[in-house]
ABC transporter permease (Rhizobium mulingense), 290 residues
Amino acid sequence: MSTLSDASGAIEPLPKIRRATGFGGVVPALAFVGIFFVAPVAILLLRSVLEPVPGLGNYAQLIGSATYLKIFANTFIVSGLVTVISLLIGFPVAWALAIMPGRLSTVIFAILLLSMWTNLLARTYAWMVLLQRTGLINKMLMGMGLIDQPLALVNNLTGVTIGMTYIMLPFIILPLYGVIRKIDPSTLQAAALCGANRWQCLTRVLLPLAMPGMAAGALMVFVMSLGYFVTPSLLGGTANMMLAELIAQFVQSLVNWGMGGAAALVLLVVTLSLYAVQLRFFGNQNPGRR
């Protein structure tokens, strides 16, 4: 038992420190989650089934309308394309960052962080200037003789995909870089000594070891793309609306909280389902071992 000596030399036992037990220590955290996360979702769910009339009419209207189904299709197609393209570009960049010299990787990281810190609206407007019919990209393609007429790269899903891919790249490069950095280089060396060529080292060693990071980054990009608003509204237009724009139109223009809540709940269910799948297949994997 710990003791404490007073001025007279007498030894007294130290007072015992009482530790918090039960749920008392987590009540503030639970209250925070309940107020700012659970309560808004519950209110949204109630409004989706109570307004304008009680029932599941809002969900039936979402599923039964060809216009709304097209918006859902646009959302999932663009989000899937953005995720795949971001993976195809982000993996080589993350691998290069992991093996390049420290100073150069620091510069590349600074560029990535600077792109993330730049205002989203400014970046989107910059892509509008670059992608328009008289923009730099069309002028370069025509000057190189690759096209005869300017391409339609804005006010469609092509522009949305390009702009969102640029914005989402850092969110997949950073998780991949962290996972690849943890992979022991001797693993690849051992595979090469055992006769594996470069392609086999990539597909049978590096990719399986990096799969948890790829899954986490892909899930993050896909979920963020599902709910993006600014970039699709500026680069896409009303003819190629996505789900976030539809929810904003329901709430702001039509003041239809029931339909807005129903669309938001569908998006939330899809997001949670994808997260559950990611946890089921990749949640317990250690990126450093197989």
